[in-house]
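Appendix B. Chain record.
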Amino acid sequence: MNPIRSVGMLTAALLLARLPATAQEGPANVGDRAEIIHVLNRVTFGPEQGDVEAVEKMGLHNYIEQQLHPESINDSAVDQEIAQFDLLQMSGPELSKVFYDEAKQRLKEKKAQAAQFAAEANPAMATTGMPMTDAPPMAANGAAAAPETPTGSPQELRKKPGQLRDALAKAAKAQTIEAIGEIEEAKLVRAVDSKRQLQEVLVDFWENHFNVDVKKGPDRILEIVEDRDVIRPHIWGKFRDLLEATAKSPAMLYYLDNATNTVAHMQGPGAQRARARILQALGLAPPTDEATMVAATSTPKIVGGINENYGREIMELHTIGVDAGYTQKDVQEVARCFTGWTFDHQTGEFLFRPFQHDQGSKIVLGHVIPANGGMQDGETVLDILASSPACAHFISRELCQRFVSDDPPAALVDRIAGVFTQTQGDLRAVTEAILTSPEFLSPSSFNNKIKSPLEFAVSAVRASASTLEPRQPPPFDKLVPTLEGAGVLGRGAKAQDRLSHAKQQSLNWHMVELGEPLFACTPPTGYGENSKKWVSPGALIERLNFALALTQQQISDVKFDAQKILGGIDLDHPEEVLNRCIAVLLDNNVTDTTRAVLTKSAVPQPGSGQTVNPNKLIALILGSPEFQRK
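Structure tokens predicted for this chain:
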């Protein structure tokens, strides 16, 4: 049954129908406190209790400066939480080995199964030495498919020891699937608990800007390296360095297909066989017997070819934008410049292969790139794009969208683009310029954006002083990330359905239900910065369902206690309870309409002899239009 029925569809409609409007009716916060709340709503994942007073004490300017220099903030408690995730501690080569060891093990198991089946079907085949050519399951993109994964919800498996043993056995062979769950859980830990909130907001921004989808082949495990070694170390430096880090990132190289972007070239029989054996050993190609291989590679053939995918997206999405005036010829030339940029599948590290590079001269956006430049051709393209005025404007507008408004003032964007250009893309300076701009601190920017599902869910946890405990006791500390990683991958509709209909779901799985599965946005655009796209009747009902699940203790890894909001107020005084909840969760920024709905739906009438249901009231406030805004 849909949990929203417990508060009534009429109440939900009254609360949700007003959300798309941007104007605020009734009284609103004014003055310094409102400015602090606005800043906290934008540079954090939502204020925690006591944050406003703490910022008032230290000064808003000092707070912003502190967040702009996260190295000065002690975040060791979160570091200790992240250290519990074993796979997140592995190096790139170690993670790559995990992926290909799984692929080879899967190949070995499939060959054994095929041999057993053949022997049972025709015993004579078991002694003829006829080779088995069954390959491991292959994904549509040619990579080894994900290993067999456990199904069911954690609650179901706890009640069924036999199924639990089977699930644990499968999970032990599916670390690459567990990796998805781990990196998603770690992102939520940082969003909820980190003191370096602006850093986490920016990491979220840049991981959407340079989107990689974990559903694509080895990216389910390479995304760990992308997050830890590519995005995080570069968000406070020069944009050019961040751009290069992503261009050389194995996760990006695989996701946007540049790993297979090569000049077409002649390949002899010996090279063809060597390549075939390597791919078979890695589980990336079906195994064949020697005679079949020799027959298939008896003559030289032309292999490889230009793949334009990354060449297009680095301009359209990563740097200058679709309206920058580049042509299809520019896309082709950029792709030629990046031929040979790939990665070593066995080590998971960037690799340039000169023999796969197009050594001819190129012209990119009017810039002549001489012949025989080798890897420098790609570096030159990065220089051209990162220094372009169009790039300064494109990046500045996206950042202004994130922090100021869905349609930021043109004058602000132009001014921030000037800072970008003057500082050669210094991202700390650009961010500081936005956060100290009059437009950012203007009352017209207050509450003019809708929270994304991630922002909404995390802000509800933070505002309610709930605690996130993502790591369950063994063996569920390994099993739950694997179950949810498999669900994100779409490993069976029944498995997803069981997770979605379980009595309790984790905060991570609620992100799937809310429409923003972490690290799993399929289009290369990532989750965009225009917040209006999150508004729809179905999506907003899911948000109220989340609020109900939170307050009814139905989020498996979040502890909620209404008393942390009520502060000991007697439930026999419903009006005081209402005022307290509105003060804590909305800082009294509530319209007359919303207050009337809350009073009618969740506050007993005087003389009724009933006490207020604080969990229902808090859920309605978290589902209100005022809480959806930032």
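Further analysis of this model is presented in Appendix C.
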